[in-house]
Amino acid sequence: RKQVSREYGSPQLSKKRAGAHQPVTDPVDYEEYVSSHPPGAEPGPLRQLLEFPSDDLELLLQERECATIEPPVPEEETSCLESGKKHAALWSLRYQRYSTTQTPHNSERQREKQKGLVKQTFELDEAAIDRQDEQDDSKRHSVSLDDTPRGSWASSIFDLKNSTPDALLPSVLERTAAEDMDCRNAENRQQCRHADLLGLYPAPDEDEAVERCTIPEVPKEHSGQRIMVKCLSLRFEIEIEPIFGSLALYDVREKKKISEDFHFDLNSDQMKSLLRPHSPHVAISTLARSTIFSITYPSPDIFLVIKLEKVLQQGDIGECCEPYMVMKESDSTKHKEKLEKLRAQAEQMCTRLGRFRMPFAWTAIHLLNIVSSVGGLDRSDSDSDTERKGTWNERKKKGFERMSVGEDMCNFANFRPATLTVTNFFKQEGDRLSDEDLYKFLADMRRPSSVLRRLRPVTAQLKIDISPAPEAPHYCLSPELLHVKPYPDPRVRPTKEVLEFPARYVYTPHTTYRNLLYVYPQSVNFSSRQGSVRNIAVKVQFMAGEDPSQAMPVIFGKSSCAEFYKEAYTPVIYHNKSPEFYEEVKMKIPANLTDNHHLLFTFYHISCQPKQNTPLETPVGYTWIPLMQHGRLRTGSFSLPVSVEKPPPSYSVLTPDVQLPGMKWVDNHKGVFNVEVKAASSVHTQDPHLDKFFTLVYVLEEYSFPFRLKDVIITEANVEAELKASMGALKGALLDTCVRFLHQLMSKLILLIVHPPVIAGQIVNLGRAAFEAMALLVNQIHKNLEGNQDHHGRNSLLSSYIHYCFHLPTTEPVSPPYATLSRATARPSSLLLSRSKSLSNSNPDLASTPATPDEEVQRIIGSKLLHEELALQWVVSTSTVREASLQQAWFFFQLMVKSMSHHLFLSSRLDMPRRQRFPDRFVDDIAALVCAISADIASRYHKVKEQMHAYLCLNQYLLAFFLNDLLSLMDRGFVFNLIRSYYKQVRINNKLHTAQSPSSLTALRMDFIRIVCSHEHYVTLNLPCATLSPPASPSPSTSSTTSQSSAFSCHVQDQGVVSMFELSVPFRQQHFLSGLLLAELSLILEPDGEGVFFLHKKAISALHSLLCSHDADPRYTDPQVRSHIAQLYLPLIPIVMETLAQLHDFTDTSPQRVRHASVLVDDSDPDNGTISQSVAMAIAGSPLPNSKANPFTLPSVVSTCSLTTVNNSWYEYE
């Protein structure tokens, strides 16, 4: 050891390791070697090291979890529903759990391994305890024990006589041969021995774990912070008639209603009985009294608005509210006769006008007051109870004192539940019912001097509970009234989930079927209409045709009624010719809409007083909205003219704006009725660009020519140009719409690439246009949603689509026209197909002769494979498309890998030799692609600004992941050559730019090889059972160039054994990945090199992580297997020995030198003839007692790696 210390104490004795500087060697022909060395030729446990397991790749069909008991998809099928009905095809590598990409060796895992270890107690520790006890006893004695550590002779005799005798050990007196004793000691040493040596050492540095991959989350419907509101009771001073309520959330700042309405009925059974003739069948879903709101964007400006309605009666709102504002419960005896009269009048109105409602009163709750007044969960119970008492106004006053809180306090998912008693309601005003008026009222409520406070309130007591919603509430109904799991008993009163209308865009794809329509009648102006048109009610119907019997029962019921109705009525404003409305009509529309589907609005005058020969309802006007126009769902705000007479036949295909002959219109055909239509649909995009694209794809699939699309007639002659133009226009679509329909959009683009349509016998090649649209769309999503990226820059929405939702289109064409289009033309398809063969450049088998023209069509269509087309289009792409695809290379890499794996599995090619799995043209495209990307990364790294370096690093990481995946699918020798090509490109550019940044690309190479080496079959890829023949002449290697002075090689005489420790050309050829890793390590640790500390850290961390992975891998527990694995790292020993000066300075103890060498504080004495304890423990990988450690103990780590290698390789020489 003294000799080692002197020889390597000086950096001048370390020489360059020429092997590390040489170009990357050509790897061995892996597939040729494996075929000539079948696994059966190797006996015992080494057999598993020769080839990948036969069950390595598996394709799992995972049924998509449905949140509801009933399937949300209706019976009718549309193309937008396909993704909701398919299983998720997951490509799985069965042994990937052994890779460090998904199973990190972190501190938590190390602690789990160390839990079962027995605490070791050594004699030195016991002696220290004894000495401490003796020092305590010395205080009671006059004689000090410091001079005699084991105590005086007298005390020893005393202790000996009073001690309990130990058990006899007869074996000590027996004569035992030295050989037997050695064998027994060897056996004892193996007992309770921890097999995972590195598991006892601190975990690898997680900062350098660039190979770590996170599995994307399963796509699911968006849900914000959820609050539950329970309506407990509603009481007035007098009870004379049924009162109905509704809840909704409003954001005052955004001036937007952010939830649909929730209707509740808290009337007594006596009051409900008054309306029983109008609602004989009450659905249990309409009996809900609790609801769950979702809030995506919490804000201090959100209010819970409560509106009350009553049965229509004669008189305006003020007159109807007067009894509730004047009469008290305590005065019931005083006003007994008047109350009886009011009850009789109410009963009469319920019998006659029970279908109609009128506005009554309203109030609002500022949700921020609930959160801030009630307090978070960390507040004391006493404070919370104090603030929960008192009236709502008192709590609101306390809330005004906290109005300075911002949005950071609006945590609606974590607050203490509160029970509120709302006592003050404001009567509705007939001329101020619009949402704009409501926003003004809500803004005024937040002011201390609110105008509303000066108004006389309607006295009532509404008790409600507000609390954070539980994770999985029982007995819950979705907005479509489907039973959400768990739902143990269908007879229990349900809780309704209320659909959210987010205040701003939410970028989440649709994952479940939803097709809801919301109709909001806003106002109508009949002031110019003569006659008694004053009590106006609007009947809303969803019509499948023009006959009255074709009204569809798709309108959701409100409370204590049937589940669905064929019509809905707006509340009536008494004696008002220009009423405003706040009604929300919710519909569950069918998936397949035709041109005949429309909304029909019928305006009625309601006679509140019974008169002879006067009907209850008198129609006074009609208007309508055709829902489908040019294949698009019509939504938005409409100002419609109203017809006095019934619409004529065939009216539904026209809009009311068309002046039909012979029809009379209110106010000379002006727009007198304002209505807004909104949709929450996973079927209808409501974006013109997406609608046009999907419509044209539908036209092609159904082959429905000619087709009118707005002002253009789509025919066979122009459909190709129109479809290409629509794909180019997708970049103009709203981003949130593209994200919501991301899965369907990607599926259609992939379909056009894989199954190009046939028009008039001519194959239309849309692959290039589809690839360009896909590249631009992916790039747009990535750039605008930077917050949705993981640490490798992969967008989570796109990544989850590939992982869970992507599936190869069926090999059969999607629709029958694709297979039989040749019959639709007047000439044989084969006359045109000879020119079409060149369109599929990635297919090598087009030269074979088909039996029939139809078979030829089918063969060409079915021959296009997605991964081949993506590679081809990527290679030939130019300009902005090439730049976009390069910036989001990870997406196309992952898409190609999954397509390749699906193709191998579905075509039963997994059992074929790897060289025959893919055609040569595709292999050439992959090689060209990798070479181009490698050159681009290397050349642009020194040209772009530092801000772009991170982007290039991410691209390099993703290229490494791609090659890592290809090792499981393709010819492994071919992939090794791709790795070599990458190294060649990077090293060439590194030499050209060395003066600017000497270590710029070295770190890139180190991260690249670390990711590639994280493969779960890394050991097998290195051919650990391949024998290295001794070189004929000394080859440049890590140790051979210093063999004259190396203390390691001077003691070894066998040249064959020496070659195993050399980083020689044969070693790097046969153990390709291990050779690359060790060559990088050797180059970075070179004394004359320009490596810096962060490079040392990268290289040593990569090695440490790999060795930890081998040590913890249950596949490699056999000592013989571990020995062969250790041989992959034997050149590490001379690397460490020759870089001792880099790892530790044995001659200089100055702090500066120690820090420069990145080692622990050294306490060695240069004049001493032996190596110090610090150096010895540093080489052994043990922590130093009482020393201040460097944050990164790299010398200790690399020494431990060397020790592990020696320990595992010793099996061969025992």
Question: What does this entry show, briefly?
Answer:
This protein is of the alpha+beta class and 1214 residues long.
Q: Cα-atom Rg, whole angstroms?
A: 40 Å
Largest sheet: 12 strands, mixed
> What share of the residues does DSSP label as strand, in percent?
5-15%
Shape: globular
| Tally of separate helices | 43
Instruction: Estimate percent helicity.
Output: 25-40%
Oligomeric state of this protein: single chain
The number of distinct β-strands equals 30
Mean pLDDT: 79
N- and C-termini, Cα separation: 24 Å
Category by helix and strand content: alpha+beta
Any low-confidence stretches, pLDDT <50, length ≥5? 1-18, 142-150, 376-406, 811-851, 1029-1053, 1150-1192
Question: Could you explain the architecture of this structure?
Answer:
The chain is of the alpha+beta class and 1214 residues long. Among the domains are: 2-53 and 1014-1026 and 1057-1213, no CATH class; 225-470, no CATH class; 515-681, Immunoglobulin-like (Sandwich). The protein contains 43 helices and 30 strands. The strands form eight sheets. Strands 3, 4, 5, 6, 7, 8, 9, 10, 11, 12, 13 and 14 form a twelve-stranded mixed sheet that branches. It starts with a helix and ends in a 5-residue tail after the last helix. Mean pLDDT is 79; it is low at 1-18, 142-150, 376-406, 811-851, 1029-1053 and 1150-1192.
Question: What's the structural blueprint in terms of helices and strands?
Answer:
Elements (H helix, E strand, L loop, with lengths): L1 H6 L10 H4 L8 H7 L20 E6 L19 H4 L2 E6 L13 H7 L9 H16 L14 H10 L7 H4 L4 H13 L34 E12 L6 E9 L4 E2 L4 E3 L4 H5 L16 E6 L6 E10 L5 H10 L9 H18 L3 E10 H8 L6 H8 L3 H9 L17 E10 L7 H11 L12 E11 L7 E2 L5 E2 L10 E3 L17 E10 L11 E8 L11 E2 L7 E2 L1 E3 L15 E4 L9 E9 L10 E10 L1 E2 L2 E2 L2 E5 L32 E9 L6 H15 L4 E3 L2 E3 L4 H10 L6 H6 L1 H13 L3 E2 L2 E2 L3 H18 L11 H10 L10 H5 L9 H4 L19 H11 L2 H11 L2 H9 L1 H18 L13 H22 L4 H21 L5 H21 L7 H13 L5 H4 L33 H6 L4 H6 L1 H13 L8 H20 L6 H8 L5 H7 L1 H4 L7 H6 L16 H8 L13 H16 L5
Parallel strand pairs: 7-14, 12-14
Antiparallel strand pairs: 1-2, 3-7, 3-11, 4-5, 4-6, 4-8, 8-9, 9-10, 10-11, 12-13, 15-20, 15-26, 16-19, 16-21, 17-18, 21-22, 23-24, 25-26, 27-28, 29-30
